[in-house]
Specification:
mainly beta; Immunoglobulin-like; 6-stranded mixed beta sheet; 6-stranded antiparallel beta sheet; 3 helices
């Protein structure tokens, strides 16, 4: 009987831990074409948490794209630029921007003080409960007659997102799976007006 009671207690606490695990959501926004010697697709990636008080630590973004539109190995070819938005512009650095496959690239970030400080606004950025800018992506277009075919690789991103403990320097995983609001699979270059006022930002 004691063993059964203990089993139920363990299941209860495991369930409570899962239930209380914070959720992080990703979405694309502000997609537009920037005209130049080579047209560029620019878009933002925004994130939000389902509850206040989480400070992001390590985040991973894996993006699939149409190689007919952008070519293969876009990062190695110098066709991808990443710049920081509000939630990435302080306290964080880029660990990696690299081709994962010929049609996918990875962006990985980490907090500068993640091994030294608990989660506070002094050393980390709190993820709001409303969508807020994380990074801006620019991709040089090879063929603007082709759909962009851009989407989050949910399988690779799920389980790879971490916040900082507020009582120690330990990482705490956001809930797996994440929430993914939309994609740019059917984004048409020729259907969108070209912005001629902003030039290609180059590789950052």
């Amino acid at each position: 009987m004691k063993n059964i009671t203990l089993l139920f207690a363990l299941l209860f606490f495991a369930g409570a831990a899962t239930f209380s695990q914070e959720q992080i959501s990703f979405k694309f926004s502000n997609a537009k074409i920037i005209g130049g010697t080579h047209d560029v697709l620019q878009f933002d990636i925004e994130i939000k948490a389902d509850a206040p008080g989480t400070f992001h630590r390590d985040l991973q973004v894996y993006l699939d794209y149409n190689t007919l539109a952008f070519g293969e190995g876009a990062v190695a070819a110098g066709k991808v630029s990443i710049s920081a938005l509000e939630l990435m512009d302080s306290h964080y650095l880029t660990v990696s921007l690299v081709d994962n496959t010929p049609s996918k690239f990875a962006f990985i970030s980490e907090a500068v003080e993640e091994l030294n400080q608990p989660g506070t606004a002094t050393h980390f950025s709190e993820v709001p409960v409303e969508y807020t800018g994380f990074i801006r992506v620019q991709m040089e277009i090879d063929d603007n007659n082709i759909l962009a075919g851009i989407a989050f690789d949910e399988e690779l991103m799920n389980g790879g997102q971490y916040m900082q403990s507020t009582t120690s320097t330990d990482p705490i995983a956001y809930n797996d799976p994440c929430v993914f609001e939309n994609d740019l699979m059917d984004f048409s270059f020729i259907a969108h007006e070209i912005d001629l006022t902003t030039g290609w930002a180059g590789i950052s």
